[in-house]
């Protein structure tokens, strides 16, 4: 595919780089947790596809590194900026969305920031402060992102918008290796996403939840470390015999963000290599 130029709805001429096809041409997108595994891969894909991308994360250092990588990989990226934001703080989320309002309002938000704390455990052993921290980031952070995205979409009279919230397969299947606060938080993400999808459907705003299976990203891999039995206990459940890659999630997010998924709304969008459909897996 060669390079090409087109006019966006806002009249600017964008160059479509030789990898992307301009599937998000001229759209303004926010990605939270943008410096992490899934977030960065998604920002790279969004930028390749012609979106203006606001990369948001709690860590400024990690954001600087991630945005440099993006600009190196996608030199034709139209507009890429960073915003330090703790998604558990409403004022910070409001400021993040107001930043993109100065570009003409949000079209896409990927509420993806999340934590899985090392001290998260079962009903007996999970400390209350870890429960509260997990809900504050994983649930309240998603709520604030949805709330301020809707306000921005309305402010700019947008006829459509795509909101994608990161949940997890643990919201769908029980795990004997518990992280109860994390599991509860991801179940809440599924429920709130589904309800918002119905509430805002007539406004043209779509809400879908991404349900990734365990991945090769720092969030899980740092936690597994060199512990082979701990790793095997999880790998065995994959029909494919492997963890997923962040780019495989990012490709699904791109689809949900784009108009190609215009009739997909309120879904638990599972990207798991068949894990949640498996009983006995191949040896
Ligand atoms: P990651 O740890 O690589 O990235 C998470 C990012 O979120 C980090 O850059 C971190 O700095 C940022 N973050 C943490 N707290 C924040 C806050 N309060 N405000 C803003 N940013 C904050 O993890 P990842 O694997 O890319 O995970 C992304 C999402 O996918 C998370 O919601 C996670 O729960 C979910 N998920 C991951 C897996 C997996 O196996 N990696 C599986 C299922 C779901």
TrEMBL record:
One of its GO terms (molecular function) is oxidoreductase activity. The keyword Endoplasmic reticulum does not apply. Belongs to the short-chain dehydrogenases/reductases (SDR) family. PANTHER family: 3-OXOACYL-(ACYL-CARRIER-PROTEIN) REDUCTASE (AFU_ORTHOLOGUE AFUA_6G11210), DEHYDROGENASE_REDUCTASE FAMILY PROTEIN, PUTATIVE (AFU_ORTHOLOGUE AFUA_6G03520)-RELATED. It comes from Phialocephala subalpina. This is 2,5-dichloro-2,5-cyclohexadiene-1,4-diol dehydrogenase. InterPro entries: NAD(P)-bd_dom_sf (IPR036291), Sc_DH/Rdtase_CS (IPR020904), SDR_fam (IPR002347). One of its GO terms (biological process) is abscisic acid biosynthetic process. It holds the Pfam family adh_short_C2. Keywords: NADP, Oxidoreductase. PROSITE patterns: ADH_SHORT (PS00061).
């Amino acid at each position: 595919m060669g390079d090409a130029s087109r006019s966006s709805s806002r009249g600017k001429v964008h160059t479509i780089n030789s990898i992307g096809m301009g599937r998000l041409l001229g759209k303004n997108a926010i990605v939270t947790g943008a410096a992490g595994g899934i977030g960065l891969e998604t920002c790279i894909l969004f930028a390749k596809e012609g979106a203006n991308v606001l990369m948001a994360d709690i860590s400024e250092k990690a954001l600087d590194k991630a945005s440099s990588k993006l600009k190196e990989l996608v030199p034709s990226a139209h507009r890429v900026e960073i915003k330090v934001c703790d998604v558990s703080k409403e004022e910070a989320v409001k400021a993040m969305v107001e930043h993109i309002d100065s570009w003409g309002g949000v079209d896409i938000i990927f509420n993806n920031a999340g934590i899985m704390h090392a001290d998260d455990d079962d009903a007996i052993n999970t400390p209350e402060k870890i429960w509260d921290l997990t809900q504050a980031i994983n649930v309240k952070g998603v709520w604030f992102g949805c709330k301020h995205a809707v306000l921005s979409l309305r402010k700019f009279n947008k006829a459509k918008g795509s909101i994608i919230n990161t949940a997890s397969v643990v919201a769908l299947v029980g795990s004997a290796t518990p992280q109860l606060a994390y599991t509860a938080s991801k179940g809440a993400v599924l429920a709130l996403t589904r309800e918002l999808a119905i509430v805002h459907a007539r406004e043209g705003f779509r809400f879908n939840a991404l349900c990734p299976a365990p991945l090769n990203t720092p969030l899980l891999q740092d936690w597994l470390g060199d512990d082979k039995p701990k790793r095997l206990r999880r790998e065995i459940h994959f029909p494919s015999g492997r963890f997923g890659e962040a780019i495989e999630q990012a490709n699904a997010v791109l689809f949900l963000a784009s108009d190609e998924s215009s009739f997909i709304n309120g879904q638990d969008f599972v990207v798991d290599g068949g894990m949640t459909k498996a009983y006995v897996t191949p040896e």
